[in-house]
């Protein structure tokens, strides 16, 4: 007993503090970036309903692209963490440069897709012409920012791998501080400025046109490039990065470095894309259940997504810590670090479950005053309380496995668990039921499918981490 207590004091408690020290700034950065989307929706909603619909529809197209890029570039984090742990600092700079080349290509491809592919998609989706027109304009502006956000995510992955997660928080807040006034100026134009500041606004600015959704897209692109340039400046001037000096000389594209990033990163990007499309497809399936059901589902999803930020941030921090210890060739310690992180994720899940249940009624009331929607949302959140454990477990098990650079199996497990068990099972229960015994469960069936899919992912990822952590 005394030996175990000593081990807690000497290994697990210091590791827990280090992990939380890394995770909390990541969580803040995630919330700040999510805040930009919230601001876009709120400010375009105040302009007119068409602009709001255009931004909402447009976001459903560019966000999955951005998340795929982000996931792919997250492959740089374990690479840098391994090199840093092994004190191979000279190898970090070329690795980062290869990620920057990949980021530029991904950003350019995403921009071209947003310029060329959206009109056919809107025609296929039968989007109303007025909404489609504004959404095309919105996406054409956002497209200019895609290379910028890709470069920011590459530099952020580098900084995270260097155990330096705070810059992403501060720079995300800078991006938000640019987004809000730029939105106000470009969405509402001169009339909006007059409403806000009155006669203090110069006559030249009073003539600015209100650009609506297009202005929102320009503001988003400006924020993206601001974050990229700020991150580039900080990684050049920050004392933490002097041992690497990534801006000293630029390494040309090298196939070996690009291949390593692609092998590690693309499966992460695919896994994140699969998760996003899971929730998108569920939203499409339940659209036929009526406005009350759609509203209740969106409220429950929005609330749980905010709480999910901490487990997800813990997962990203766990990737760094496992990668550092593996780079030091301390395989036994890496195993302890990984499983200590999993234990913390269970504690976080319990806290989230309690918070979700205790605050459900007042939070739902903030979203809507409709009693039908409130009652249905509360019943959905009762199911969401159940899957907090499996959700926190699966994302942190995946984070630990990323620290081992084991991403392809994670991708396979994610696809099978989310799409076959989660989406397939949820659609079956929600739309068809179980023979003559169980009638179709509607939206609750889809959430039960989510519980089953996330639990399957947690079990399979736990099995994978057990095998690979023993093997080292």
Automatic annotation (TrEMBL):
<feature type="transmembrane region" description="Helical">
    <location>
        <begin position="373"/>
        <end position="389"/>
    </location>
</feature>
<feature type="transmembrane region" description="Helical">
    <location>
        <begin position="261"/>
        <end position="287"/>
    </location>
</feature>
<keyword id="KW-0406">Ion transport</keyword>
<dbReference type="InterPro" id="IPR048279">
    <property type="entry name" value="MdtK-like"/>
</dbReference>
<feature type="transmembrane region" description="Helical">
    <location>
        <begin position="299"/>
        <end position="320"/>
    </location>
</feature>
<keyword id="KW-1133">Transmembrane helix</keyword>
<feature type="transmembrane region" description="Helical">
    <location>
        <begin position="208"/>
        <end position="234"/>
    </location>
</feature>
<feature type="transmembrane region" description="Helical">
    <location>
        <begin position="61"/>
        <end position="84"/>
    </location>
</feature>
<keyword id="KW-0472">Membrane</keyword>
<feature type="transmembrane region" description="Helical">
    <location>
        <begin position="96"/>
        <end position="116"/>
    </location>
</feature>
<feature type="transmembrane region" description="Helical">
    <location>
        <begin position="136"/>
        <end position="155"/>
    </location>
</feature>
<keyword id="KW-0812">Transmembrane</keyword>
<feature type="transmembrane region" description="Helical">
    <location>
        <begin position="441"/>
        <end position="463"/>
    </location>
</feature>
<feature type="transmembrane region" description="Helical">
    <location>
        <begin position="167"/>
        <end position="188"/>
    </location>
</feature>
<dbReference type="InterPro" id="IPR002528">
    <property type="entry name" value="MATE_fam"/>
</dbReference>
<dbReference type="InterPro" id="IPR050222">
    <property type="entry name" value="MATE_MdtK"/>
</dbReference>
<feature type="transmembrane region" description="Helical">
    <location>
        <begin position="409"/>
        <end position="429"/>
    </location>
</feature>
<keyword id="KW-0050">Antiport</keyword>
<protein>
    <recommendedName>
        <fullName>Multidrug-efflux transporter</fullName>
    </recommendedName>
</protein>
<keyword id="KW-1003">Cell membrane</keyword>
<feature type="transmembrane region" description="Helical">
    <location>
        <begin position="341"/>
        <end position="367"/>
    </location>
</feature>
<keyword id="KW-0813">Transport</keyword>
<dbReference type="Pfam" id="PF01554">
    <property type="entry name" value="MatE"/>
</dbReference>
């Amino acid at each position: 007993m005394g030996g175990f207590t000593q081990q807690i004091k000497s290994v697990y408690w210091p590791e827990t503090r280090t992990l939380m020290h890394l995770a909390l700034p990541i969580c803040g950065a995630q919330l700040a970036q999510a805040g930009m989307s919230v601001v876009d929706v709120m400010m375009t909603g105040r302009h007119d309903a068409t602009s709001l619909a255009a931004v909402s529809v447009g976001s459903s197209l560019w966000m999955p692209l951005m998340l795929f890029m982000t996931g792919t570039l997250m492959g740089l984090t374990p690479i840098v963490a391994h090199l840093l742990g092994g004190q191979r600092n000279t190898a970090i700079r070329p690795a980062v440069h290869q990620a920057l080349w990949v980021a530029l290509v991904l950003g350019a491809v995403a921009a071209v897709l947003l310029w060329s592919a959206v009109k056919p998609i809107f025609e296929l989706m039968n989007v109303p012409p007025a909404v489609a027109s504004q959404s095309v304009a919105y996406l054409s502006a956002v497209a200019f920012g895609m290379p910028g956000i890709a470069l920011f995510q590459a530099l952020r992955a580098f900084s995270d791998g260097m155990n330096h997660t705070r810059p992403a928080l501060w720079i995300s807040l800078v991006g938000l501080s640019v987004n809000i006034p730029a939105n106000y100026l470009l969405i509402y134009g001169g009339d909006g400025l007059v409403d806000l500041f009155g006669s203090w606004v110069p006559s030249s600015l009073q003539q600015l046109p209100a650009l609506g959704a297009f202005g929102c897209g320009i503001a988003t692109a400006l924020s993206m490039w601001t974050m990229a340039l700020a991150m580039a400046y900080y990684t050049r001037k920050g004392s933490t990065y002097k041992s690497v000096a990534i801006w000293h000389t630029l390494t040309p594209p090298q196939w070996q470095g690009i291949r390593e990033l692609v092998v590690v990163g693309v499966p992460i990007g695919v896994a994140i894309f699969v998760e996003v499309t899971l929730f998108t497809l569920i939203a499409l399936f339940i659209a036929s259940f009526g406005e009350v059901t759609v509203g209740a589902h969106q409220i429950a999803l929005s609330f749980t997504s905010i709480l999910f930020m901490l487990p997800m941030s813990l997962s990203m921090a766990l990737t760094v810590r496992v990668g550092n210890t593996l780079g030091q060739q301390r395989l036994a310690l890496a195993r302890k670090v990984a499983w200590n992180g999993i234990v913390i994720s269970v504690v976080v899940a319990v806290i989230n479950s309690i918070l979700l249940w205790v605050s459900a009624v007042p939070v739902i009331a903030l979203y809507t005053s409709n009693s039908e929607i409130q009652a249905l949302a509360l019943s959905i959140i009762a199911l969401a309380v159940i899957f907090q454990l499996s959700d926190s477990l699966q994302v942190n098990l995946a984070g630990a496995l990323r620290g081992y650079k084991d991403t392809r199996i994670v991708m396979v497990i994610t696809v099978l668990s989310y799409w076959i068990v989660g989406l397939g099972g949820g659609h079956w229960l929600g739309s068809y039921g179980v023979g003559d015994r169980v009638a179709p469960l509607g939206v609750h069936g889809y959430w039960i499918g989510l519980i089953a899919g996330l639990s399957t992912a947690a079990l399979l990822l736990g099995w994978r981490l057990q095998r690979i952590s023993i093997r080292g």
